[in-house]
Batch of 2 targets.
Target 1
Amino acid sequence: MSNYHIKHLEEYWQVYRKSVRNPENFWEEIAEEHFLWRKKWDKVLSWDFKKPEVKWFEGAQLNITENCIDRHLATRGDKTAILFEPNDPDEGAQHITYNQLHKRVSTMANVLKEQGVAKGDRVCIYLPMIPELAIAVLACARIGAVHSVVFAGFSATALATRINDCDCKIIICSDGSYRGTKTIDLKSIVDEALDQCPGISTSLVVKRTGGTVSMKAGRDKWLAPLLETANSACKATIMDAEDPLFILYTSGSTGKPKGMVHTTAGYMVYSAYSFKNVFQYREEDVYWCTADIGWITGHSYIVYGPLCNGATTLMFEGVPSYPDFSRFWEIVEKHKVTQFYTAPTAIRALAKENLDYVEKHDLSSLKVLGTVGEPINEEAWHWYNDHVGKKNSPIVDTWWQTETGGIMISPIPYSTPTIPTFATLPLPGIQPTLMDENAQEIKGNQVEGRLCIKFPWPSIARTIYGNHDRYRDTYFSAYQDMYFTGDGARRDAVGYYRITGRVDDVIIVSGHNLGTAPIEDAINEHPAVAESAIVGFPHDIKGNALYGYITLKQTGEARNQDNLRKEINQLITDRIGPIAKLDKIQFTVGLPKTRSGKIMRRILRKIASKDTSNLGDTSTLLNPEVVQEIIDQALI
Ligand code: PRX
């Protein structure tokens, strides 16, 4: 029996039971056998969810890039590590071998050092999905700098907030990016952001589009000439197991984004282990995850997990609709992709298009299909299963979070029988449970509650950068000695989990987490706006879309409402990014409030979802009369 690679259901159960009976022993065996350590640990685990504090493999020393690159050189030096598929198919794919990756990462690491980056420094990376993004991430890890990748769809303000929150001293960016037919001028977004970031001394610019950009003397430097003169050998900096590896921001239901801190050894072990099992990865496979490296999915399952296993990982720069809706399937056929991992929102969008787009391509190389980021509806699941997998490739509905670092609940393909919409069973080492409103654990099956995790796993985020109290309050205060996920879930008759969605004010739109508070803050900046409340409502493709209820100041009431709607969405785009734009904006006379002044979002959610039959008791509201008015004027 192998703990590392589970091949059938019985083995899963044996491994799972062992992982729960003796977690330290379980993870120690995996860490010993499958990774390269410069020094072994003194202690496998110490933890206290009250503080909260979690440490894995304390005393161990390593560098994650030696695990992702160096140790493969002897046996896989000429194997493709990164397979880059550009936005424009005519540009041609690039195969970057492990040998080449080693050189490119080392060279970039030396450039960073020359620019004064040292171990522990934070480096912001704001790049499109081009090889330099993965290389920059690994170059930081090579020298012990902490990378903070910001998705290149975020606005200047959002970028500046993230740069300043973790005090980055350098940014790696590009002149622009390609997305389908569009060319986006990323450098001017960076310039605008850097006006608000006094801590940034250097900006290294990758040339991608060749567009005209302004380069600020003393601060902005083209990366290419620096790479040309830098040494291509760079010894890996030896890191302690609990040294931070990266910071990645995720939205909270309130306040500014949370910089989740992931550390080195535990994250490495878990991302590699979960990758191997969830995708049943084998040496000759070509694995493709369509996420952006700006999200956790890209960190764990484009970069670290696959490379730790010596895999070929495909990076795609473009969009599923360019040059047409067959692009995904064309790439699968062209590169004989074996595992394909995407978001339900992409599946829903593609399922709306002509079936020919899928059927004209040979998808017979596929062995495993994955989904992530939001609940997948049955219809989308069946379309994926029937037309992409041809009922031959198991679908892994993987549930996890930025905070968990790796996949937590998922079928193991070819082992766990799948049921549409169920993430099914916890991976080894993961101990989920459901809690009720009275903070009691719900035992037994066929139950529903709030999803918590009872025991630490190696890749749990260790803190929120600069705000440990917020970390404790958000994840460890709702239930004693438990990590609270913020999600609701059902456990069915056989113990399978089905995630029902967020139970807080986070809304998942097209697989992206959006907190309502930052969007409301952006709206409230508009001089005509008095107050606003955002809720989610079901949307065919995005899963959820955003509905804004906005009350205007007297001065705003005379304004043209369409213009106001445009201005409000522009403000949101400027402050956060286009992903947070509202689909519907209803101007209302007031917002329903409790007597203590809290907005009753429950009522607003129901109205936006066309479910006004049972609004509950509204008589206790401060202003019950507004409810009917809002219903009468609802945009549904
Ligand atoms: O609500 C869950 C949903 O996405 C949230 C985490 O979002 P984020 O940190 O951005 O990470 C997304 C990629 C890992 C979760 O709290 N979610 C994620 N996967 C699933 C899901 N909801 C249902 N089913 C899933 N498979």
Target 2
Amino acid sequence: MGNKKIHIITFGCQMNVHDTERMKMIMKHEGYDWSESPDEADLILLNTCSVREGPENKVHSQLGRLKPLKESNKELLFGVTGCVAQQKGEELIKQISYLDLVVGTDAISSLPDVVKKVKESGKAVVQTEFQEREEYQFVEIDTDYNFSKFSDFVTIMKGCNKRCSYCIVPYVRGREISRPVDAILKEIEMMAERGVKEITLLGQTVNSYKYNGVDFASLLHKINEINGIERVRFTSPHPKYFTESVMDAISELDKVMEHIHYPLQSGSNDVLKHMRRQYNSELYLSQIEYMKNKMPQLEITTDIIVGYPTETATDFEETLKVMKIVEFDNSFSFLYSPRPMTPIYDMEDPIPEDEKKERLYKLKELQEEISKSRTSKLIGSIQEVLIEEENDGRDKNQFSGRSRGNRKVFIDDITGYKLGDIVNVKIISGSVHALKGEIVSPK
Ligand code: SAH
Ligand code: SF4
Ligand code: F3S
């Protein structure tokens, strides 16, 4: 045992980033150490995303790029994990002759078995079975897990029970299952013992969490009690489950940060209905108003899909209208991408490509304007920052961390403080992507 090396290339969302860390832990138990570069690895995994066509295509281009390594080292194993693995299974093996293993989203615990089988048989192995609810086991982390220093992820549920018309996630991540409360709390306590100060709770509709009568709001209350954890974030909440008790918990619990990533997708009720999002813009806006009244400092980011097949010019204007009312601090906007397995995959799409691109451009322009104005309001303010990293600067090193509102903040001088400290920073300049400031006092 020992001396073997694994390298994983990760695409997609935070769930995948966290799955990669858990796969590293699982393979460490088998004697595989982490390799920073694919060149020295004995096992290379691509942990993939299929939410849009772009990320899906990266699988082929990346594997193509890595192929020469395989030619020079016959012992090297190539695998695909994550959402494209789940989506395509066997098909990947047929398409890519030099692929050794395909492991789906529910099967990461079986990675060691799969690797063994490949070695014994000399043949490619595919493991993409979804686990039944009764049998589903969340991967519990242990001391072999590489704890991020100050900020880390905690899975509270897996899968998604929604069926948004455009979205492949339910088909590649399976049914929603909430993780037992005790396991979540135990894991967070362990993280706190390791020096983790901030956690981000993960779930596709994170606020639909429910386990033996404990809902998302009560889970937040329990986590707020854990000593050592100073900051709690979560992603992504869904408007249908954004109850008053959830909103009250966010505003009342001191450790829950004043930032929500709150996917809107569209501001048009016709489009939202066609998307099967289960809310309308009035509900979304009333929730935002409720929260802003309680937390004027709340920062809000969102996801928006542009050029949905039924989106008319008027629908698109509705989206811009909602953006102007909410004043998102930032938004991630995507052109609609038809996904296999989804209900509208084959739907006729009458919007010309140019028109879609123009809408996306217009939306990004509006967002930039709003972001600038939101950022300018922060200049001169005092923001509480967790100092997380030391970055190599050109002349001298710089430090960075995040504000409660999730803005990246750069600090030149942390004399008297250290990484992991939470400090009050006076903001002196900034753009949407990063603020700059000086420490004025400890938290
Ligand atoms: N669970 C989250 C979304 C996860 S997918 C939610 O319900 O809000 C992340 C983002 O990808 C989505 O918010 C959506 O904006 C985008 N997305 C998903 N499917 C897409 C598609 N087919 N085309 C373009 N964007 C898509
Ligand atoms: Fe996809 Fe909708 Fe589930 Fe989000 S809630 S993951 S958009 S199906
Ligand atoms: Fe992509 Fe899978 Fe996440 S499709 S967005 S990696 S859940």
